[in-house]
Structures are given as C-alpha cells and as structure tokens.
Amino acid sequence: MNLTGRSLSTLLDYSVDEINFILELSHKVKKEKKEKIFPKRLANKNIALIFEKSSTRTRSAFTVAAFDEGAHPEFLNKSDIHFGKKESTKDTARVLGRMYDGIMFRGFKQETLNNLIQFSQIPVWNALTDDHHPTQAFADMLTLQEKIGELKGKKLVYLGDAANNVAHSLMIMACKLGMSFVVCSPKSRRPYSEIISQCEKIIKETGAELEFSDNPVRAVKSADCLYTDVWISMGEENNPECKERIEILKPYQINNKLMCATENESTLFLHCLPAVKGMEVTEEVFESKNSGVFDQAENRMHTIKAIMIATLT
Q1: Whole-model pTM above 0.85?
Q2: Where in the numbering of this chain does the Aspartate/ornithine carbamoyltransferase carbamoyl-P binding domain appear (predicted)?
Q3: Of 35, 152, 300, 303, which sits most exposed with the smallest number of CB within 10 A?
C-alpha cells in the first residue's frame, strides 16, 4: 500500500485498509526496535516538530522515532518561529515546505493544521489539535491488539469528558475497526455532533456498534477495555466552567468498583496520560495489573515511527 506524501489530519481521511496497514507496520517496527534492528529508512530526511502545546510523550516519541530511522528532528516552539504572529501560518508553511520533508504539528486549531497541509505541500501529521488526536488513537489500538487480540467486536468504553480530541479520534478509530464503542459521559460532555454523524455513517459499512450512556455501571458491563482522559485539558485550567465540569464528571471516575462492574477480570485500563490520579482514575486502578498505560505510552513511539515511514518513503 502506498501512502507516500499523505498527511494525517484526522482519521476520517484514512480507509480501514490504510489504518490496518499502519498498525501492521507498527507491530513490525516495534519488533525491530526490540531486536535492535535499525534500517534507517528515513536517512537524510528532516522533520520539523512544531509545538504550540508542550508535551512529554509526543516530543519524545517523534524525536526517538526519527533518530532511530536516521532522520533529523528539529524542535520548533511558537516563540522560536513567531508562528502565526510575526509571520502568517501560510508563509511559515511555504518556508518549511522547502526545507523539511515532513512537519509534525501539536497545537490548538484544526484550521492551523490544515493551512500547514495546504501550503507546505509536504506530509503534515496531527499530533494533537482541539478537535482530533489521531496519533494517540494509533497507539491505543496497537496496545489493544497486543493485550486483547483481534479488535472486531470487542467492547471499548470511554468514560468521562468525551467532548475532546482523544474521545473523537478513539471513536472514529473504533468505528472503523468494527469495535463496540460506548461513550459514557454526561449528555453535556458528549463528542461533537458532526463527528458522531460521521461515525454513524462509518458503522453502516464496518459493522461496528456505537452507543451513548450516562450510566457507568450499566455501560461497562462485559467491557474489554475502559478508557479515560483528563477532565480539564491543557489550556483550560483558568476556565471558570471547569469547577462545574469536575462536579458532573465525578460519577464517571474509573475506580475498583467500576472495574468490578465489568464482570470481566481481564478488563484493560487505558489512559493517554498525563493522569490526574484521584480525579478521572484512582491510584489503585492506575497501578493495577490491568493497567496498560505505560505500554500505551511506549506505543506512541512505534506508531509514530510507522506513520512517518509510511508517508515519507
């Protein structure tokens, strides 16, 4: 399958076969890494890493993945390049497109990412915007494949604040891969309606199931995996609405009682990190034998490496 030159804006842009191709490649490059095999498929490639939002896992994953494959990653924060202020996004994109082979963008507006794609004319990868987080979803699915095997028909329950980028990309990915995906959240914190509509079209083709619930105990029954994310996203800390949001989300905390309510002793717990333990998840669950969060964090590197290889070579 040839994905050369493709950008990754949202998972809606990729077919089921293309997603599976990247996941298969992710398994391959992870195995190579463990066996200390480094083919250097990205030798002499230069990668621009643009960060409007800081990150531990994203920066580390892109940097190590690039070095492993022989590429040179260059970290650029918004103050380094006067991004969108002294120089327009359009002009920055045209300059970087002439100097780099690929661009990673982690920031706020989806529109900014789309401008980078349009005007740079090189592959651009969405490492987080306000609306989507596709590289995270690839790591999530690689982890699920490793932990529970074939994903079609498996039940994945997302609990808490689902009106965010992680829930959006996870829902799209689960629907494309034929899973049973349950969004368990207050009605006021469900995914954006337009993304739900797009997923409802997808499940007609893939046979996936999509359900919405505000009853955590009922929603998690027979779940293969419970997933959550922080209730207050980066950049929202000073939002006066956040205190009220925390109050309405308290019943959706993943704790030992809720894990037991799955009636499945092997139910996996996942979290994209960083976690606020004691809020969306308890320390007990986070540190339990059912937790796969650090395998999930490592898999950011392997799936990102696969995405870069697939779109640059």
Answers
A1: yes
A2: 6-146
A3: 35
Same domain, 20 and 110: yes
**CA 56: distance to chain centroid?**
14
Q: How many domains does the chain have?
A: 2
Pairing of strands 180-184, 209-213: parallel
Mean pLDDT of the chain: 96
What is the CATH classification number for the domain harbouring 187?
Answer: 3.40.50.1370
pLDDT tens digits, residue range 161-170?
A: 999 999 999 9
Do 17 and 161 share a structural domain? no
Question: Does residue 233 have a pLDDT over 80?
Answer: no
Q: Is 57 annotated as a binding residue?
A: yes
| Two structure tokens written together for 273 | 């990190």
Would residue 1 count as lying in a domain? no
pLDDT digits 0-9 by tens, 266-284: 999 999 999 999 999 999 9
302 labelled ligand-binding: no
73: DSSP letter: E
Please check whether residue 118 lies inside any domain of the structure. yes
Answer whether residue 178 is part of any domain.
yes
Strands 180-184 and 46-51 come out as unpaired
CA 238 to centroid of chain Cα atoms: 24
130-160: pLDDT as tens digits = 999 999 999 999 999 999 999 999 999 999 9
The answer to whether 61 touches 297, Cβ cutoff 8 Å, is no
Does 184 count as an annotated binding residue?
no
Q: Give the neighbor-by-neighbor strand order of the sheet with 268-271.
A: 209-213, 180-184, 155-159, 225-228, 268-271
CA angle, 158 then 159 then 161, to 5°:
105
CA distance 156 to 158: 7
Q: Structural domain of residue 173, as residue ranges?
A: 135-296
